[in-house]
Fold:
Amino acid sequence: MNFYLLSQYLNYLWKAKNAHDLHSPFLYSFYTEVINDKVEYYCFSHLREIRKDFEKDNKKIQNIDFGAGSKKNNDTEKFIKNVARYGITREKYARLLFRMINFFKSKNIIEMGTSLGLTTLYLAKANSESKVTTFEGNPALCQIAQDLFDQEQQKNIRVVNGNFDETLKKELELINQIDFLFIDGNHRKDATLRYFEMALEKKQPHSVFVFDDIHWSKEMNEAWAAIRCHPDVTLSIDLFQFGIVFFRNENYFKNHVILKF
Structure:
């Protein structure tokens, strides 16, 4: 049992608020219309079936991890079914990513950590006018993801294979702005902060940055604390699994909230 993560979760439950505690109109709207939205969007059932297929896949792939690894399994090979069960965004949170992009009509989307490509589909299907650039270090996972995108005829996704430290800066030079950023890779403090600082150069007032596993370890906790305290961040939301930050000009006073999800 991960006692550190358990203690963090208990602390989250103690502090988390709901809609009745929110006074900001934007925050109240975002919480009620996006975070707690229960609508079954058009692609959700189909994506659930893809997840089930992955969870039954007994093929093995080579395990190449440039980040902090996994708390479950750090073997040289992995079953695809175990990657699906432990190494990709849970359905509840993948749906939230979809709803956020749909709500904000985000067009320029970056995902760091493609894995099997299922979460990428949630990002790409949320807005047909979007362009998703997704980064993955493991070439075997890149191939699985690309096969999935081809199968789905999802044309608005581009996969970039390689170490994030070598690929992100180069790719950022090709775009004008980031509307939506999802970081789900590496899970080290220094790397997370480095990618955040690099992405800040392309952020706009309407940009949304989402960080996965913010309480996964002590150093990820420290990275999240540094991110939400950054002077450019006007609003930060802690959902325990996800940390969400905004740069909206109308939030004149820095605000950090912990919300039930």
Notes: Residues 103 and 203 are 18 Å apart (CA to CA). The beta strands are 60-62, 77-79, 108-112, 131-136, 157-161, 178-183, 203-212, 235-238, 242-246, 255-258.
